[in-house]
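seq:
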Amino acid sequence: MPPSSERRILYWYSKGMARISAKNQVTIPVVVLHEAGLRAGDPVTVDTLGEGELRVRRTERSAFDEAFGALTGTYPPGYLEQLDHDDAKR
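struct:
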């Protein structure tokens, strides 16, 4: 068995190592999600903290956020843009 310091380093690597895919996606290790109290499907916000550093945090969704997009497809394509254009002419 490796010495204690080596085990900590190996745990750190296995716990937190991830890569950014060609589609700019990151798979967060399950251990890290569990420790943060996050689960698959939770809405999160990603913020920039500085060069090479991001923060991922749970986002509470409001009733507006839940309803946003509920009427998608109700109007034909371009209809709302045409209304905006007509309003701008007035």
